[in-house]
Amino acid sequence: MDQDNWIVHVAEARKRLIIVGICFIVTFAAGLYAAPGILLYLKSQPLAEPIAWNVFSFTDGILIYMKCALIFALMFTVPVLLYQLWAFVKPGLTEHEAKSAFPFIPVAFMLFLAGLSFSYYVVFPMMLKFMKRMNQTIGAIETYGIDRYFGFLFDLVIPMAIAFELPVVILFLTRIGILTPDTLKKTRKYAYLGLAILGSCISPPDFVSHLSVTIPLILLFEISVYVSGRQWRKMQSSPSG
């Protein structure tokens, strides 16, 4: 009987992985089709418009197409992956646990999009202006390649988007009992220090830019502490908690 259950679980996992794989392939193909429009939109932005996107090798163009399509596919595949994961573990959860876990999926997706938007429209322009100003200060001739431009962009916005998942991660860890509000409060000063270091790594080395990145990260942490506290109190007051 145990072996039969194991076979059923493997078959179920295989089916859900196939669904995720098909979603990734379809959205990746759609991303390849949409990549020119996305890249031209990024090129038309005021900050990027005066920059000539030089190509220094035959593969630069296709690599940028692939990277753009990959990010496009991940944006739409991650929610499907989270849903399939939730659907896979749902039979082992109580009805209340299943209902309380489901909102993690759209919230995580929205926070990821918020992180992408904030990093692209706020942090990336500051970084680019700072770097260009530094290059002009030493009299350097600016010749930018399309691969370097997008490599710089992706290396900045993706970590920031992941950092915006902090509330969901902390809430999930609270939900399964690994974190408590007291633990978060005791480690607040260490969290502030870590977020300040992260902010300094992401932002240009000037005070205003540093604050503009670090303050949102600290606010995200405080939101996480507040949401964690509410979840913890709800769990303690429930008959099963």
Task: Describe this structure as you would to a colleague.
By secondary structure, the protein is mostly helical. The chain is built from nine helices and no strands. It has helices at about 1-45, 60-90, 95-100, 105-135, 145-165, 165-175, 180-185, 190-200, 205-235. The protein starts with a helix and ends with a helix.
Count of helical stretches:
9
Overall average pLDDT:
79
Class from helix and strand fractions? mainly alpha
Major sheet, described briefly? none
Rg, please?
22 Å
Number of strands: 0
Contiguous runs where pLDDT drops below 50 for at least 5 residues: none
User: H/E order of the elements?
Assistant: HHHHHHHHH
Shape: flat
- Taken as a percent bin, the fraction of beta residues is under 5%
Query: Helix amount, in percent?
Result: over 70%
What gap, in angstroms, lies between the N and C termini?
Answer: 32 Å
Q: What is the strand and helix layout of this fold?
A:
Layout: H1 2-44, H2 60-89, H3 95-101, H4 104-137, H5 146-163, H6 166-175, H7 181-186, H8 188-202, H9 207-237
Helix pairs in contact: 1-2, 2-4, 4-5, 6-9, 8-9
How is this structure best summarized?
By secondary structure, the protein is mainly alpha-helical.
